[in-house]
Amino acid sequence: LLQIQNEESVILFLVVWTVTEITRYSFYTFNLLNHLPYFIKWARYNFFIILYPAGVAGELLTIYAALPYVKKTGMYSLRLPNKYNVSFDYYYFLIIVMFSYIPLFPQLYLHMLRQRRKVLHGEVIVEKDD
Description:
By secondary structure, this protein is mainly α. The chain has one domain (1-120). The protein is 72% helix and 0% strand. The chain contains five helices and no strands. Helix 2 packs across helix 3 and helix 2 (8-32) crosses helix 4. The protein is elongated. InterPro entries: Tyr_Pase-like_PTPLA. It is a multi-pass membrane protein. It is an enzyme of class 4 (lyase). It comes from Bambusicola thoracicus.
């Protein structure tokens, strides 16, 4: 998978994850110390607006770039017959994971937007019961 590790999409999601985690854990640390600078709070609830979609794009592009290699090598797949009597195809699993972003990403992103509104603007968000 060395060729996949050199994809620009890997650099994209690694940079995004790094900035996200530095921001998140700075927020947690200062919050625990009861000394939360406004900039850290602001960064925690604003950086995600750009970082979240960029990170998802990096992840999806990396998975997509890996698909031909995974299919060719049968990586992490288990074929029948075998002693466990089960079959698992990692290639199709990755495709399912990619499609799972369609319903999951908007839910998580909208949740963060609601949290942002609540924390930064003091708005009370009333959740609907399903």
